[in-house]
User: Fold these one by one.
Assistant:
Number 1:
Amino acid sequence: MSHSALRFTVQAGGSLTGRIRVPGDKSISHRSIMLGSLAEGTTQVSGFLQGEDCLCTLQAFRNMGVHIEGPSANGEVTIHGVGLHGLKKPTVDLDMGNSGTSMRLMSGLMSGQAFDVTMTGDSSLSKRPMKRVTVPLAQMGAKIVATEAGTPPLHVQGGQKLKGIHYDMPMASAQVKSSLLLAGLYAQGETSVTEPAPTRDHTERMLRGFGYEVIVEGNTIRLQGGGKLMACTIDVPSDISSSAFFLVGASIAPGSDLIIEHVGINPTRTGVIDILRLMGANLELLNQREVGGEPVADIRVRYAPLKGIRIPEALVPLAIDEFPVLFVAAACAEGETILTGAEELRVKESDRIQVMADGLIACGIDARPTPDGIIIQGGKIGGATVTSHNDHRIAMSFSIAGLRASETIYIDDCATVNTSFPGFVQLASGAGLQITAG
Ligand code: SPQ
């Protein structure tokens, strides 16, 4: 069987109960390797996500001469930082796999190096738009060559003198913001970005954790080039994007009562909680605390009947990765759910609007895609065979739909679940989802 031929089979029904802990946050794990590598001193990371995406970032820095120990079985990583100017020219192309975060953030970092680098990706990443970073980075003085369509591979020519710019971002994207801020570390003067709406702020928080001054005024973030990063300790919380499958699963499956431990609840990521609550979900945040500059809680979720809503557009960037599974919640809700202002979903690992609509329709749900969103009428989920289009979040979303299906759901092309959530099948089946992989 080819790697991508992995099929999930989900028997209909069941409920989710008990206590679980999902793996570490993907966004924070990537950034811990990047900043830890460029810091002075030794950075200790715990809870690192050993998903394929973050392992690509880790390997890229090893390929540039950084000594990184681990990850151990429980996610301990020790990074012997080389300082902002200590990376070495890799002898191979940097393979970013399926990971948009790696490719876009590294575009900024690589623009400031003294050497040339080529960054490649898998077939999905090779279709994703990179002009959103290469265009503003070019304004800073970077030299990056992409395909004519603006897609990977990216060839970054080193030895350029970068200058700080102000950039008004045309779309709400943490990857674009982060890419420019990371290039800004190497630029002369101030780099500032204004975002049209708040996006995840892990880069800003982590830069501060490494002792770098970052000024935030409203939606504008600024930093001065030429500083240095000082090693620190990072405790990576569990990923709210991975938790989202269980938040929705326990909300839609009668009899569910589940606690998800140590979940990152950074306010730039909690749109999924707000949207589910607007739909009538029963979510409780317990034991709220702060861990290494990021807020964390245990989340208790119990079954509750959901109702369809018009999703407030302000919540879209705060829940951007959770929409595939929120569409499953909408399919189980009474009435209509309307999403607008989410055209970014069309340029993720798959076109998440179209692919989810196709799969939901195959399951017997009335789902109508629109250019920037979708309209879903709650209904009865039937059995179906759907494809994830090699998109991890689609594969896991249809797995969760099985909890409310009347017949078995088969999901094809599920191997990419390992990019963000290794161990999903074991953890989900332990909590009550009747899922097998093979
Ligand atoms: O890394 P990648 O492939 O882009 O991953 C995704 C995901 O669903 O896991 C998006 F497809 O998450 C992005 C997220 O959508 C991770 C991210 C980050 O860590 O900065 C930011 C978001 O992307 P964007 O394009 O809105 O900046």
Number 2:
Amino acid sequence: MSHTTAPIGVLDSGIGGFSVVKQVQKLLPEEDILYFGDGAHIPYGNHSEETIAAMARYMFGFMEERKVKALLVACNTISCVLDRCGDTVSCPVFGAVQAGAAAAARLEVAQVGVISTVFTHNSRVYPRKIQALSPRKVVVLSCGCPDLARLVEHSLGDPAGMAQVEENLRQELDHMVLEDKVDCCVLGCTHYPLVADSIQRLYPGLPLIDPAVEMARSLKACLDREGLNNPRTGPGALTIYTTGDVAEYALRARQVGLERVAAVEFYPPMEIR
Ligand code: DGL
């Protein structure tokens, strides 16, 4: 049985899930958060479904061993294969795609744009879910970006890297925003909200949907409903594990503005044959 003082688990292929941690820290500051970023294997978006599901199960196992009371799958790509790994944990699980699609379906718009990894794009999960959830007829245009997540992962705070991010954003988004004129854009990869300022500067006035906001709200509603809120009055701590570079993760956490980072630790990666 889940305990109120157990941490909230958050996982991603890299630092993208920091955008989700940010929203959880804002809405539920008293909760402890346990983060896992699979830095050794990023980007997930160019892998096969089989490999993504196997790597996800490895991280889910880590979270189950540490008895998290809820798990946020802060990776849209993994969220597309949730039915292949969700049964690895016994706590409630929240997917990024499910949250992003629900938020988009509530908007009164005719054309929704989605930018994501290539895997998420090819899966067509976003268009299917948005159209199934929307009460009105809505066109969903989707664009898969092969390099963007990797560029964001390693470019924060570096002017040359950020120039590359912006060039890549223009390459991927110009057509959808300027020609097709979508009414809004779902940031369908958790890395993208980390460069939302750049997207906003390139396309002023384009409404952006960050699934993390909806994920944090759903999590709060679940904890309230199940009586699982941490009873402490002070703020909780964030512990980060990565299969990648510990120093880089500590730096990125600071750059993103995450609070109360108690530790950043290395964890051995899964071996991919
Ligand atoms: N941040 C992840 C997502 O939301 C994946 C990026 C990647 O590893 O390709 O899809």
